[in-house]
Amino acid sequence: MTAAGTTPGGGLSPEQLAKFNSDGYLIIPGALAPTTVSALLAETHKMLAEFPIETHPLTRFTTGGAAGDAAHVGDDYFLGSGDKIRFFFEEDAFDAAGALAKPKEKAINKIGHYLHGLSAPFAALLDDDAIRAAAAPVVSMVICKQPEIGGAVPPHQDSTFLYTSRPSAVGFWYALEDATLENGCLSFLPGSHRWAPVARRLVRTAAGAGTEMVDNDGPRFPEGDGYGEAGAPAGGARNDLYVPGEVRAGDLVLIHGNLLHKSERNTSQKGRIIYTFHVIEGQDREYDERNWLQPPKEGFTKLYV
What we know:
InterPro entries: Phytyl_CoA_dOase-like. The protein is built from six helices and 15 strands. It has a single domain (14-287), classed as q2cbj1_9rhob like domain (Jelly Rolls), CATH 2.60.120. The chain is an alpha+beta fold.
């Protein structure tokens, strides 16, 4: 990662680290070289063109409603994707009769969840010294945000989906195409990682045949001073407090697991392809066995030992 403004050793500068700790997210311009962006986009388009739709269960990806209680995807194709590369359709890629209404390349919401283990171009990112400052990637995916049908993602926290005790998830979000207000860029609620608890969790059902949202009965904040619900602004998580994060292809966004963030629907003619993976602390953190995503037999990928 050759990010402008980072330290010579590849990590965050003191100023960047302070801003991340304050805001809960950090935009790093030019983190990926243009050649790397081109390689990852080429790999993405190759996968979209070559996956066999004839044998696909047509699983659609849904993030649920804004309240976090709506149904999430939870079939075997989804739950078994932790050590595979699988393809999930946009909800609006189908017509009223249930037939696919878009070419398959323009109908996929995301590709996941083991790109960092099975795709050489994506795995190569983990060889970066700056990324090795993190501990263990647990999930990686390409999110396409397709033209005209790219669905909105309601406010959420990544630790809701990748829970450790205590919360420790951090997202690495790489723009492979420009992400703008027009095509559904991310928006963030700065500082919300400090006062927004991980109150709900997405877990596998007791029977293991689906997923559900449940109350979090474990720690709701990371360790450290400055965390707690008492710091919430008047009115709580108001929509007018969200800040859009427009980025250019090659930029990186780091996202704290407790940070509230969202994205709007893409009704434009321009897609928005990104690559994201999440890491968790591998030491003194318990990855919950109820989480929807469970590690492969060999365990999660370790960036350092």
